[in-house]
Specification:
Blueprint lengths: L3 E4 L2 E4 L4 E2 L5 H34 L10 E6 L5 E9 L2 E10 L4 E6 L10 H14 L12 E5 L8 E6 L8 E2 L3 E6 L5 E6 L6 E2 L12 E4 L8 H10 L3 E6 L2 E5 L4 E5 L3
Parallel strand pairs: 14-15
Antiparallel strand pairs: 1-2, 3-17, 4-5, 5-6, 6-7, 8-9, 9-11, 10-13, 11-12, 15-16, 16-17
Helix pairs in contact: 1-3
Length: about 260
Protein backbone atom coordinates (compact mmCIF):
# COMPACT_ATOMS: atom_id res chain seq x y z
CA UNK A 1 0.00 0.00 0.00
CA UNK A 2 1.02 3.57 -0.54
CA UNK A 3 2.40 5.31 2.55
CA UNK A 4 1.72 9.04 3.05
CA UNK A 5 2.47 11.66 5.63
CA UNK A 6 0.52 14.90 5.56
CA UNK A 7 2.19 18.05 6.89
CA UNK A 8 -0.34 20.88 6.75
CA UNK A 9 -1.51 19.95 3.27
CA UNK A 10 1.90 18.71 2.10
CA UNK A 11 2.04 15.06 1.18
CA UNK A 12 5.22 12.98 1.03
CA UNK A 13 5.09 9.74 -0.92
CA UNK A 14 7.06 6.94 0.70
CA UNK A 15 6.99 4.48 -2.18
CA UNK A 16 7.65 4.29 -5.89
CA UNK A 17 4.90 4.28 -8.47
CA UNK A 18 4.78 1.71 -11.26
CA UNK A 19 4.64 2.93 -14.90
CA UNK A 20 1.25 2.29 -16.48
CA UNK A 21 0.00 2.06 -20.05
CA UNK A 22 1.06 4.91 -22.34
CA UNK A 23 -1.39 7.76 -22.88
CA UNK A 24 -3.31 8.06 -26.15
CA UNK A 25 -2.06 10.23 -28.99
CA UNK A 26 -4.05 13.36 -28.05
CA UNK A 27 -2.92 13.22 -24.47
CA UNK A 28 0.66 12.56 -25.55
CA UNK A 29 0.68 15.74 -27.64
CA UNK A 30 -0.62 17.72 -24.64
CA UNK A 31 2.06 16.13 -22.44
CA UNK A 32 4.86 17.05 -24.85
CA UNK A 33 3.57 20.61 -25.08
CA UNK A 34 3.34 20.85 -21.28
CA UNK A 35 6.91 19.63 -20.89
CA UNK A 36 8.31 22.06 -23.45
CA UNK A 37 6.42 25.02 -22.05
CA UNK A 38 7.12 24.14 -18.43
CA UNK A 39 10.85 23.91 -19.05
CA UNK A 40 10.79 27.26 -20.86
CA UNK A 41 8.77 28.97 -18.12
CA UNK A 42 11.30 27.81 -15.54
CA UNK A 43 14.29 28.84 -17.67
CA UNK A 44 12.87 32.29 -18.42
CA UNK A 45 11.85 32.83 -14.79
CA UNK A 46 15.30 31.78 -13.56
CA UNK A 47 16.99 34.06 -16.10
CA UNK A 48 15.17 37.07 -14.67
CA UNK A 49 15.82 35.89 -11.11
CA UNK A 50 19.59 35.41 -11.42
CA UNK A 51 20.19 38.62 -13.42
CA UNK A 52 18.27 40.85 -11.01
CA UNK A 53 21.10 40.95 -8.46
CA UNK A 54 23.59 41.76 -11.22
CA UNK A 55 21.35 44.56 -12.46
CA UNK A 56 20.92 46.05 -8.99
CA UNK A 57 24.69 45.93 -8.37
CA UNK A 58 25.57 47.48 -11.72
CA UNK A 59 23.09 50.37 -12.02
CA UNK A 60 23.82 53.59 -10.09
CA UNK A 61 21.31 54.28 -7.33
CA UNK A 62 20.02 57.38 -9.12
CA UNK A 63 19.05 55.29 -12.16
CA UNK A 64 17.31 52.35 -10.46
CA UNK A 65 13.93 54.10 -10.73
CA UNK A 66 14.27 54.03 -14.53
CA UNK A 67 13.74 50.28 -14.66
CA UNK A 68 10.13 49.51 -15.56
CA UNK A 69 10.41 45.81 -16.26
CA UNK A 70 12.33 43.15 -18.16
CA UNK A 71 12.03 40.88 -21.17
CA UNK A 72 13.85 37.65 -21.96
CA UNK A 73 14.91 36.30 -25.35
CA UNK A 74 17.02 33.39 -26.62
CA UNK A 75 20.76 34.11 -26.99
CA UNK A 76 23.74 32.20 -28.38
CA UNK A 77 24.77 28.76 -27.10
CA UNK A 78 21.46 28.03 -25.42
CA UNK A 79 21.67 31.02 -23.10
CA UNK A 80 18.96 33.61 -22.43
CA UNK A 81 19.42 37.37 -22.78
CA UNK A 82 17.61 39.58 -20.28
CA UNK A 83 16.91 43.24 -21.02
CA UNK A 84 15.84 45.57 -18.22
CA UNK A 85 14.16 48.54 -19.81
CA UNK A 86 12.96 52.05 -19.15
CA UNK A 87 10.35 54.11 -21.00
CA UNK A 88 10.47 57.49 -22.68
CA UNK A 89 6.76 58.07 -23.03
CA UNK A 90 5.68 54.71 -24.44
CA UNK A 91 8.99 53.98 -26.16
CA UNK A 92 11.21 51.43 -24.39
CA UNK A 93 14.97 51.67 -24.14
CA UNK A 94 17.63 49.40 -22.63
CA UNK A 95 18.89 50.24 -19.15
CA UNK A 96 20.78 47.01 -18.40
CA UNK A 97 21.39 43.82 -20.36
CA UNK A 98 23.04 40.50 -19.53
CA UNK A 99 22.83 36.87 -20.55
CA UNK A 100 22.70 33.74 -18.44
CA UNK A 101 22.53 29.97 -18.49
CA UNK A 102 20.42 30.07 -15.33
CA UNK A 103 23.50 30.14 -13.07
CA UNK A 104 26.30 32.40 -14.32
CA UNK A 105 25.61 35.95 -15.54
CA UNK A 106 27.79 37.31 -18.33
CA UNK A 107 28.00 40.15 -20.85
CA UNK A 108 26.64 42.64 -18.31
CA UNK A 109 26.16 46.13 -19.68
CA UNK A 110 24.66 49.37 -18.37
CA UNK A 111 23.33 51.52 -21.20
CA UNK A 112 23.60 55.32 -21.14
CA UNK A 113 21.65 58.05 -22.87
CA UNK A 114 24.38 58.69 -25.45
CA UNK A 115 24.20 55.16 -26.85
CA UNK A 116 21.92 53.54 -29.42
CA UNK A 117 19.82 51.74 -26.85
CA UNK A 118 16.51 51.28 -28.67
CA UNK A 119 15.08 47.80 -28.33
CA UNK A 120 14.64 45.43 -31.25
CA UNK A 121 11.10 45.15 -32.68
CA UNK A 122 10.82 41.68 -31.12
CA UNK A 123 11.66 42.93 -27.62
CA UNK A 124 9.37 45.94 -28.03
CA UNK A 125 6.56 43.55 -29.04
CA UNK A 126 7.19 41.51 -25.88
CA UNK A 127 6.85 44.64 -23.77
CA UNK A 128 3.47 45.40 -25.38
CA UNK A 129 2.41 41.84 -24.59
CA UNK A 130 3.53 42.27 -20.99
CA UNK A 131 1.57 45.51 -20.68
CA UNK A 132 -1.58 43.81 -21.99
CA UNK A 133 -1.14 40.94 -19.54
CA UNK A 134 -0.60 43.14 -16.51
CA UNK A 135 -3.77 45.12 -17.24
CA UNK A 136 -5.79 42.03 -16.39
CA UNK A 137 -7.21 41.76 -12.89
CA UNK A 138 -5.99 38.38 -11.68
CA UNK A 139 -5.52 37.11 -8.16
CA UNK A 140 -2.08 36.36 -6.76
CA UNK A 141 -1.84 33.59 -4.17
CA UNK A 142 1.18 35.18 -2.49
CA UNK A 143 2.02 38.74 -1.39
CA UNK A 144 3.32 41.04 -4.09
CA UNK A 145 2.59 41.35 -7.81
CA UNK A 146 2.38 38.47 -10.21
CA UNK A 147 5.62 37.67 -12.05
CA UNK A 148 5.51 37.61 -15.84
CA UNK A 149 7.02 35.20 -18.34
CA UNK A 150 6.52 35.65 -22.08
CA UNK A 151 7.35 32.83 -24.48
CA UNK A 152 7.67 33.48 -28.22
CA UNK A 153 4.97 32.36 -30.67
CA UNK A 154 5.02 28.63 -31.31
CA UNK A 155 3.90 29.01 -34.93
CA UNK A 156 4.42 31.65 -37.60
CA UNK A 157 1.91 34.43 -36.93
CA UNK A 158 0.72 32.70 -33.76
CA UNK A 159 0.15 34.40 -30.40
CA UNK A 160 2.72 35.04 -27.72
CA UNK A 161 2.29 32.61 -24.83
CA UNK A 162 2.42 34.62 -21.63
CA UNK A 163 2.19 33.61 -17.99
CA UNK A 164 1.47 35.50 -14.81
CA UNK A 165 2.81 33.59 -11.83
CA UNK A 166 2.40 33.90 -8.09
CA UNK A 167 5.87 34.30 -6.64
CA UNK A 168 7.40 31.99 -4.04
CA UNK A 169 7.54 34.21 -0.96
CA UNK A 170 6.65 31.81 1.86
CA UNK A 171 9.22 29.23 3.04
CA UNK A 172 6.34 27.15 4.36
CA UNK A 173 5.08 26.30 0.89
CA UNK A 174 5.43 26.80 -2.86
CA UNK A 175 2.37 28.18 -4.69
CA UNK A 176 0.74 25.70 -7.06
CA UNK A 177 -2.20 28.07 -7.49
CA UNK A 178 -2.42 31.65 -8.67
CA UNK A 179 -0.79 30.97 -12.06
CA UNK A 180 -2.35 32.01 -15.37
CA UNK A 181 -1.72 31.60 -19.10
CA UNK A 182 -2.55 34.54 -21.36
CA UNK A 183 -2.22 34.34 -25.13
CA UNK A 184 -1.71 37.68 -26.88
CA UNK A 185 -1.90 38.07 -30.65
CA UNK A 186 0.83 39.79 -32.60
CA UNK A 187 -1.65 42.66 -33.01
CA UNK A 188 -1.56 43.05 -29.22
CA UNK A 189 -4.98 41.61 -28.32
CA UNK A 190 -5.64 39.05 -25.59
CA UNK A 191 -7.09 36.09 -27.51
CA UNK A 192 -7.20 33.47 -24.72
CA UNK A 193 -6.60 33.20 -21.00
CA UNK A 194 -7.00 30.60 -18.31
CA UNK A 195 -6.20 29.86 -14.67
CA UNK A 196 -4.56 26.55 -13.76
CA UNK A 197 -6.43 26.09 -10.48
CA UNK A 198 -9.70 27.25 -8.97
CA UNK A 199 -8.11 28.18 -5.63
CA UNK A 200 -4.79 28.86 -3.94
CA UNK A 201 -2.72 25.77 -3.18
CA UNK A 202 0.62 25.69 -1.35
CA UNK A 203 2.96 22.73 -1.74
CA UNK A 204 6.26 21.93 -0.05
CA UNK A 205 7.44 23.12 3.31
CA UNK A 206 8.90 20.88 5.98
CA UNK A 207 7.52 18.38 8.44
CA UNK A 208 7.47 18.68 12.23
CA UNK A 209 10.95 17.15 12.40
CA UNK A 210 12.29 19.61 9.81
CA UNK A 211 12.45 16.98 7.09
CA UNK A 212 11.66 17.89 3.51
CA UNK A 213 9.06 15.75 1.70
CA UNK A 214 10.35 13.25 -0.84
CA UNK A 215 7.64 14.22 -3.30
CA UNK A 216 4.51 16.34 -3.62
CA UNK A 217 0.93 15.44 -4.50
CA UNK A 218 -1.82 17.63 -5.93
CA UNK A 219 -5.28 16.98 -7.36
CA UNK A 220 -6.08 18.63 -10.69
CA UNK A 221 -9.57 18.67 -12.21
CA UNK A 222 -9.23 21.20 -15.03
CA UNK A 223 -7.28 19.02 -17.49
CA UNK A 224 -7.02 15.29 -18.25
CA UNK A 225 -3.21 15.43 -18.05
CA UNK A 226 -0.71 17.57 -16.11
CA UNK A 227 0.07 21.04 -17.45
CA UNK A 228 3.15 23.19 -17.94
CA UNK A 229 2.60 24.66 -14.47
CA UNK A 230 3.05 21.24 -12.89
CA UNK A 231 6.36 20.89 -14.74
CA UNK A 232 7.37 24.38 -13.63
CA UNK A 233 6.49 23.66 -9.98
CA UNK A 234 8.45 20.39 -10.04
CA UNK A 235 11.50 22.20 -11.42
CA UNK A 236 11.15 25.09 -8.98
CA UNK A 237 10.81 22.83 -5.93
CA UNK A 238 13.32 20.25 -7.23
CA UNK A 239 10.85 17.53 -6.27
CA UNK A 240 8.74 15.06 -8.24
CA UNK A 241 5.10 16.10 -8.31
CA UNK A 242 2.34 13.48 -8.42
CA UNK A 243 -0.75 14.90 -10.14
CA UNK A 244 -4.10 13.16 -9.68
CA UNK A 245 -6.44 13.98 -12.58
CA UNK A 246 -9.09 11.32 -11.90
CA UNK A 247 -9.97 8.23 -9.86
CA UNK A 248 -7.62 6.05 -11.92
CA UNK A 249 -5.33 8.70 -13.35
CA UNK A 250 -2.16 9.60 -11.47
CA UNK A 251 0.90 11.11 -13.12
CA UNK A 252 4.48 11.58 -12.02
CA UNK A 253 5.82 14.95 -13.16
CA UNK A 254 9.47 15.96 -13.17
CA UNK A 255 11.47 18.46 -15.17
CA UNK A 256 12.19 15.83 -17.81
CA UNK A 257 9.11 13.62 -18.02
CA UNK A 258 5.40 13.24 -17.40
CA UNK A 259 4.39 9.61 -17.04
CA UNK A 260 1.19 7.85 -16.11
CA UNK A 261 1.72 5.75 -13.03
CA UNK A 262 -0.21 3.04 -11.27
CA UNK A 263 -0.19 3.40 -7.51
CA UNK A 264 0.23 0.09 -5.69
CA UNK A 265 -2.72 -0.72 -3.49
Amino acid sequence: MMGMRVWGGVVAIACLAVPAVAADVGKQAAIERALARGKSIYAYDQAAWVTTDAMIAAIPEARKSEVRGWVVAPAAKGRLAVTYYGLTGSKPYAVFTADTNGRSVDNKRVWTAGEARDLTPELAAQIRVREQMTRLTLRSCTPGPLNSVILPPETSGGPYIGYLLSGATDPAGYPAGGHYRIEVSQAGEVVAQRPFTKSCIALGGRGPDGARPAALVVSHILDPVPTEIHVFVSLATKLPLYVVTGPDATWKVTGTAIERVKMPG
